[in-house]
Specification:
By secondary structure, the chain is an alpha/beta fold. It is built from 29 helices and 27 strands. The strands form 5 sheets. A 7-stranded mixed β-sheet has the order 13-23-24-25-21-26-27, sandwiched between helices. Strands 3-4-2-1-5-6 form a 6-stranded mixed β-sheet, with helices on both faces. A 6-stranded mixed β-sheet has the order 11-10-7-8-9-12.
Length: about 850
């Protein structure tokens, strides 16, 4: 007879039911003080977290893999899992274990998934970078017809900022690179960008419009702006995703702001990586331009500066408004110092408000908003007083964004203790005298110890048991405990005591008076906690009702922080205000690379400043010089100055005049893309092709060593053609660095081409880099000298010198490749290939010494036929 199959336990049935709803997530299953994981989830989590994998019971006759993390410290483990590429669903106990026990049988505590944690939906301070936005983006492809755009919506759940945009399919990657989304969602089956797949019906524009109206309680979206159908589809999908991950609780979001299709400098992902705008090559913030210039003192200011740097403006009026604001803080040193001191003490209002909206906040968040609003009000008053003679328009508008919060501040100051706890569980955050009834309940609870001590004293006197004690634990509550040898008198029915438990050496009892006192104390404590929770909810709802005003104040503080921080670095390091207009000028005097300059300054080493003039008659610079001489630094330096200027920052230079750059391209450095099956040279050509197809006359292009990834002749030919195309077809401002000295011949024929080189000197056989960019061309590449500096063995250097001498001698005999190229007309049609000569082709394949007499005779007849005889 076959044994019956082992039936899963009620708990395992519950777990499997919850897991079925989130198959793509690791499931944190709450069991008491731990979140447990089972089966494949446990194995994956244990590997990522490097914790022990154990087993619990059996399922289908096999041990169940299991691991767990403590609830009180789960955020640390959650962060590691998210960084490891996992999504985590959290199943909490949604009823009191006592209720499950009361149902009897094998009832298990009811549980439900209360949240799905993904990279783009984090709100906990411990899981977020305080100085970086955490964007979640949704992409909605437009209808498959000509001219249909792609809808893009993105939000930061931790701050409530919500934006939308319509872009072209070709421009999507650049927009996502600008936003820097932590997580992207897109319809299932759409693979244009790496994304979390979501059901296609979530991306319906009509449904999206309905979701937006319901979310913000409006009958029409006209008050928020004009949205395209793809934008509505993307925004609706974003809300649907947040509803799913929040288990029905959508975070606090500000009304969506439709962004213009233009308005900021277009910078593709490759250029951002090359210039290390917000992340260094290694992927960290350290070493980036953002890290170098970030002197903000608040998390919100740091986030705003990163956004400004990611999307430099292309409207000269908007750029100059920012430059005016920075300039005011540069000139008003006292105001700058006071503002920065005040801002240093300002909590992160935006993220505290978001946590409260999601039900994940606590009393400390209320206090942070209280203190932040008070600081904002005081700072506004001080700056207005300091600017009585006039404030720049942006500063004036920013201060106007700090609303009137007197009632909120007074209410929170009255209601909360000065330093409330993080959690609500143990109470103690509502201030004394705020609620008389609460004070009374607290009095009862506080008097409990005294009342218990008094009862204990009376019971000792009435029983004559000097060792009698009143104890408390979570199982029995308040109880009387006596030594076993003294328990007999209390066991008698007439004693009035009730036997509750006998242990080794002690016996425990209850009494009517102690029972009543215990109830009074317990109820007073419970009622006090409930009263505090009610006040917390009331205060929370009051703030959420004014969320938009409070968020406006937080954003105003961030802008003041950015402006004063940029002024601080300008004053400290001698940066200057750039002239930014709608011309095509690009004139830099004594410009410095901001990151390299900071590093050399820290090392007490000088930085060699250089000029750059890309005027109309010299808009294309051909820069030559050896490796390590500083060509790449010079190229990147000028691109970074354009980014800084249009982001609204002053720049490290003696002077700067920069006409608006609409698109910035930087192809400096080389790497392969193995995931996409692209070699280094293929990546270089793809990026170069994008530059040639997307640049305009107002663009700035930085090109370094085009063609170096292939053979010498192929590479030179490509570089030659690209240089001509940039000059004749694009007409944009461009810095073109190369080792192909033959290209310098083009300066005789391209009127907008100027030659520049990085100076070096040889001293006693050693190469000295001067890092100075001057007019002219390098006389040679100095490759062997650099190889010697790199430590190449002397015999190898010697042999290379011998080979180089022979190659150069051969080149001189033929007149050199450049001489052959000199006669090439610019962009002339390729000459037609010569007609095929069948007779010569036939002879070319003949090896006379191998021919037999018969084969030789046949060949003669064949040649006569080809000759037409």
């Amino acid at each position: 007879m076959t044994a019956p199959a082992h039936q899963p336990s009620p708990m395992m049935i519950q777990y499997l039911g919850l897991k079925a709803g989130v198959p793509d997530c690791l499931l944190f299953y709450r069991m008491g003080d731990f979140y447990e994981l089972f089966f494949a989830d446990a194995a994956a989590a244990a590997a990522t977290l490097d914790i022990a994998l154990t087993a619990r019971g059996e399922h289908d006759g096999k041990p169940i893999p299991m691991c767990g993390v403590p609830v009180h410290s789960h955020e640390v483990y959650l962060q590691r899992l998210i960084k490891g590429g996992h999504r985590v669903a959290i199943a909490e106990q949604i009823e009191d274990p006592k209720a499950a026990k009361a149902r009897g049988g094998k009832s298990v505590v009811a549980r439900a998934i209360v949240r799905i944690v993904t990279p783009g939906t984090l709100t906990e301070a411990a899981l977020l970078d305080a100085r970086a936005s955490n964007w979640l983006a949704a992409v909605a492809p437009g209808a498959p017809k000509a001219g249909a755009g792609v809808g893009l919506a993105w939000c930061d759940v931790s701050t409530g900022v919500f934006r939308t945009l319509t872009c072209t399919a070709d421009g999507l990657a650049a927009e996502l690179a600008r936003i820097g989304a932590t997580e992207v969602i897109a319809p299932e089956g759409w693979h244009e960008v790496p994304a979390t797949p979501r059901p296609a019906h979530d991306f319906d524009s009509a449904g999206g419009e309905a979701r937006l109206k319901a979310q913000f309680g409006v009958a029409t979206l006209d008050g928020f702006g004009r949205f395209t159908r793809p934008e509505l589809a993307a925004a609706g999908a974003l809300l649907a995703y947040l509803d799913t991950t929040g288990a029905g609780r959508v975070p606090l979001l500000l009304p969506p702001q439709p962004a213009p299709t233009e308005g900021w400098m277009a910078i593709d992902a490759a250029t951002r990586a090359s210039l290390e705008l917000t992340r260094s090559v290694g992927g960290s913030r350290t070493g980036s331009l953002l890290d170098c210039i970030d002197l903000t003192v608040t998390g919100s200011g740091g986030r705003l500066l990163a956004d400004d740097l990611a999307g430099p403006l292309t409207d000269p009026a908007a750029v100059n408004a920012r430059l005016d604001a920075v300039g005011w803080f540069v000139e008003e040193g006292i105001a700058r110092t006071r503002a920065r001191e005040a801002l240093k003490a300002c909590p992160d209002i935006e993220r505290a408000l978001s946590r409260l909206a999601l039900g994940r906040g606590g009393p400390r968040d209320l206090a942070n908003i209280r203190d932040g609003l008070a600081l904002a009000t005081a700072l506004k008053t001080a700056l207005v007083a300091h600017g009585q003679l006039g404030l720049p328009p942006l500063i004036e508008a920013t201060l106007a964004g700090i609303g009137a919060h007197g009632n909120d501040i007074d209410r929170l100051r009255t209601a909360l203790v000065a330093e409330p706890p993080i959690e609500t569980a143990k109470g103690g955050y509502i201030a004394p005298r705020y609620d008389a009834a609460l004070d009374e309940l607290r009095g009862t609870g506080a008097d409990g110890r005294r009342l218990v001590a008094a009862l204990e004293s009376r019971l000792r006197a009435s029983t004559g048991v000097a060792t009698l004690r009143i104890r408390h634990n979570n199982v029995l509550g308040y109880h009387i405990e006596v030594a076993a040898r003294a328990a007999d008198p209390l066991m008698r029915a007439e004693s009035g005591f009730t036997h509750r438990q006998t242990l080794a050496g002690v016996v425990r009892f209850g009494s009517p008076e102690l029972h009543d006192l215990g109830i009074r104390i317990s109820q007073a404590g419970d009622h006090a906690l409930a009263a505090e929770a009610a006040h917390f909810e009331e205060l929370r709802e009051g703030l959420l009702a004014r969320a938009s005003v409070i968020s406006g104040t937080a954003q105003a503080l961030a802008r003041l922080d950015v402006c004063s921080g940029l002024a601080e670095i300008a004053g400290r390091d001698g940066w200057v205000r750039p002239i930014v207009d709608d011309s095509c000028a690009f004139l830099i005097e004594a410009g410095r690379h901001p990151v390299v300059d900071a590093a050399t300054r820290a090392a007490r080493q000088p930085f060699v400043a250089n000029d750059c003039d890309l005027s109309e008659d010299r808009r294309l610079w051909l820069v030559t010089g050896p490796n390590m001489a500083g060509k790449s630094t010079f190229l990147r330096q000028n691109a970074l100055l354009a980014v800084l200027a249009q982001a609204g920052a002053w720049v490290p230079a003696r002077s700067a005049h920069i006409g608006i750059v609409d698109r910035l391209f930087s192809r400096v450095g080389a790497s392969d893309d193995l995931a996409a099956g692209r070699s280094t040279f293929m990546v270089e050509m793809v990026e170069t092709a994008a530059i040639l197809s997307q640049s305009t006359r107002s663009s700035l292009v930085i090109l370094d060593e085009v063609g170096r990834g292939t053979s010498t002749y192929d590479g030179l030919a490509i570089a030659w053609a690209v240089l001509e195309a940039v000059h004749d077809k694009l007409g944009c401002r461009c810095l073109f660095a190369t080792h192909y000295h033959e290209l310098t011949r083009l300066s005789e024929r391209l009127k907008g081409l100027a030659l520049a080189t990085v100076r070096v000197r040889e001293w006693q056989g050693e190469l000295v880099f001067l890092h100075e960019v001057v007019p002219g061309a390098a006389d040679r590449s100095y490759g062997l000298a650099v190889a010697r500096l790199a430590g190449l063995p002397a015999p190898v250097i010697a042999r290379a010198k011998e080979v180089l001498g022979r190659l150069e001698a051969q080149r001189d005999k033929t007149g050199g490749l450049a001489a052959a190229l000199t006669d090439l007309p610019l962009f002339a049609a390729a000459p037609a290939p010569p007609p095929r000569d069948g007779l010569r082709d036939a002879l070319a394949g003949v090896a006379p010494d191998t021919l037999s007499p018969r084969a030789a005779l046949d060949l003669i007849y064949e040649l006569k036929r080809l000759a037409g005889e």
